[in-house]
Design a protein that fits this description.
54% helix; elongated
Length: 108
């Protein structure tokens, strides 16, 4: 909810780009389930294997593709604290920029 006491601070921060959350630590090189090829990160093979296993499990239990993708995206966002808020803020900034381009929102 909007707090009138913070309105100036909110206006001042609109021009700032939020910091993108950093990913959590990736597993160590020895944690990968398969050999690593040139240009691959050590955990790519393990992540790929887990995704394939999750997909097989979901299809075996009749989960449709949309629900699987939604669950995978939700799990990804949950594993990166602050990412959901970062994306929402970026979308809001894009909407504000679009409104300004159309002349529907004045610039300060």
């Amino acid at each position: 909810m909007h707090n009138p006491d913070n309105s100036q601070a909110e206006i001042e921060t609109l021009g700032e780009t939020p910091e993108k959350p950093e990913p959590r630590d990736a597993p160590a090189a020895g944690d990968a389930a398969a050999p690593v090829g040139p240009g691959e990160r050590p955990w790519d093979a393990a992540a790929n294997q887990l995704l394939h296993e999750a997909a097989r499990l979901c299809t075996a239990h009749g989960v449709d593709a949309e629900a699987f993708m939604s669950g995978a995206w939700s799990a990804y966002l949950s594993s990166r604290p602050g990412m959901r808020e970062y994306i929402e803020e970026q979308q809001l900034r894009d909407q504000i920029d679009e409104l300004r381009k159309r002349g529907r929102l004045p610039t300060a």
